[in-house]
Amino acid sequence: MDARRQTIEPMNDSRVQVFTDGACLGNPGPGGWAALLRHGSREKLLAGGERETTNNRMELYAAIAGLEAMNRACDIVLVTDSQYVRRGIEEWLPRWRANGWKTADRQPVKNRDLWERLATASARHRVSWRWVRGHAGHVENEIVDRAARAEAEKMQGED
User: Fold this and answer.
1) Domain for residue 9, yes or no?
2) What mean pLDDT value characterizes the chain?
3) What is the pLDDT of residues 17-52, one digit of tens each?
4) Is 1 within the bounds of a domain?
5) Could you tell me which of 42, 43, 40 has the C-alpha nearest to residue 10?
């Protein structure tokens, strides 16, 4: 398969695919997030932004929005190009909780509000977290990247 045309094909089972991305014009600066939800042949694109934020916050918010959009518990494959999100939810979150929301070097966890919200949203579902390389031609990742950037540009224009 041509690397520029990578995609994850629609699944014929009950799982929902959620593709997410965040963008920020400056860090901090105006930011946007997007989540593409797919169930079978049905798709829905969610997007939004904030006037003053960070890229990590937008990456987290994209995943939260995708998970919170489900009105019932689902089997979900969540695809992100953010190692911060994937590693955070799979590796770091249990340690942060056990350490009273402190990092390994005893500093407060950044974005704790969104990490707690993501943990709550993902606990409602059975989520498989997948990472894809960003800006590498993955079709759905490119879609959410464009949507997140467009939201960031809208936020920038509101100044």
Assistant:
1) no
2) 91
3) 999 999 999 989 999 999 999 999 999 999 999 999
4) no
5) 40
21 in active site = yes
Assess whether pLDDT exceeds 60 at residue 10. Answer: no
Active site residue 22: yes
CA angle 26, 58, 105 (to 5 degrees): 85
pLDDT of residue 159: 61
- The neighbouring-strand residues paired with 108 are 102
> In this structure, what CATH number is given to the domain that contains residue 111?
3.30.420.10
Domain that holds residue 72: 15-157
The Cα 77–Cα 75 span in angstroms is 7
Does 4 score more than 50 pLDDT?
Answer: no
Q: Catalytic residue among 32, 50, 59, 142, which?
A: 59
How many independent structural domains does the chain possess?
1
Instruction: Choose the catalytic residue: 21, 50, 140, 151.
Output: 21
41, part of any domain:
yes
Query: Does residue 143 fall inside a structural domain?
Result: yes
For the question of residue 13 being annotated catalytic, the response is no
Indicate which residue of 22, 31, 66, 88 is catalytic. Answer: 22
Mark whether 81 is an active-site residue: yes
The pLDDT score that the predictor gives to residue 13 is: 64
Report the relative pairing of strands 29-39 and 16-24 from DSSP bridges: antiparallel
